[in-house]
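Contributing: when you submit paired examples, paste them exactly as shown. First protein:
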Amino acid sequence: MSYSVGQVAGFAGVTVRTLHHYDEIGLLRPGARSAAGHRRYDDADLDRLQRILFYRELGFPLEEVAVLLDDPDIDPQAHLRRQYQLLSDRIERLRKMAAAVERAMEARKMGINLTPEEKFEVFGDFDPDQYQEEVERRWGNTEEYRESQRRAASYTKEDWKRIQEEGDDINSRFVALMGAGTPPGSEAAMGLAEEHRRWICRSHYECGHELHTCLGRMYVSDHRFTENIDKAGPGLAVYLRDAILANAERHGYRVSDGS
């Protein structure tokens, strides 16, 4: 059984010109010629072409491919083993590259769809990407973090402005309660803390009462959060934490002093 140059080109997904070139440089000479002088390829030629294309796909120059294929000390089985190992190594490299790209995609934080000007319009002088490395290091392996990244990737400037306005409204109402001398354990403050938790669930990730208490404590223990939250009103971070803890207890979550 023999095949024309056009048939082989179709089988292999290469051009006729490529096969002509391989013939001209001695890399793949057809096993026979027709009476009219046309190239005819047999099964052995197709096997050699397959090995050539394997090595070419892996980036080997034609000169090196020729040396590898014509080495008398390497039998066809050895070629297959070598190609298998090279392909396995390449697959592993590509897998690692894909994982790195995926991590980079997930690591993009708030404002992924925003220009620098739009970020400033939405967040003011707060840069949502400022602590990205720390955020990924601390919470990157959690489902909540992954969920927040999935949502953030789909949000537009209008979405972020709405979310920011909702958060600012909650903060302003907390400040009003503080100004009125309302205790953080009051029904009003606990109700607003529950609204704060549901705002997080709606906007960023599923936030149960236990996680909400962790956030509340962090608002006070990390001075960066405290300073940012207290911009709305001095003492808001502490008041917010206490209201969150009281609300969690009201919903059956046992809050201990050291937890």
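Second protein:
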Amino acid sequence: MTRPNLWSEQKEILFEDNHLLIINKPAGLLVQGDSTGDEPLSVKAAEYLRFKYKKPGAAFIGVAHRLDRPVSGVVALAKTSKALSRLNEMFRDNTVHKTYWALVGKRPEPSSGHLVHWLVKDPIRNVTKAYSAAHPQGQRSELDYEVLGQAGSRYLVQVNPITGRPHQIRVQLATGLGTPIVGDVKYGFLAPLPDVSIALHARRLELSHPVTKELMTFEAPLPTVAHWEAASIYY
């Protein structure tokens, strides 16, 4: 039995125990399957576990949260149904602290702040629109942001979402600050990146272990691609 080519030298595996598998997801990879039929992270992770532990059947992998396909960074997967149930509850109750890094083309003004919008998703076009006032179909969405500094010709912004809505960071930065994320042509950036990713990275995840209750922090290194290179000085 040859090892599946999942993650070279396991560099994308940030942590693993009996209940959790924490992955630094590469941009371009789905977290969970969709209509494209492309193999998602959840299937790759299950196959990795099946191989590692020589399981005769399928390995359990539960998905409690997602990152958009063109986004990289920390994803927490559950290896047991107990862990999945508790992770689902934590994400639903917003008790998981998430930190993202984003590259934008111009410096946001003001350089730090709190954004509130009502987001309405168009599932047909897979885009989300942000409204600055309450909208009858909108979900109230909040985030905090801070400019960490200049990264080459771009600006590095740290974002802490308080709610977890589809495309929330992408549309709130574009609409609320007029600073779409580098490469994110869906929300107003002028040109795609060569690898068709966007410069949004789930940098850090802080949560209580779903079984031991230990407070844990997981940090994902930035992708080793040209557009992120200048931001590495902020580690």
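If you have annotations for the second protein, write them as plain sentences, like these:
The chain has one domain: 13-234.
Residues 13-234 form a domain with the Pseudouridine synthase fold (CATH 3.30.2350.10).
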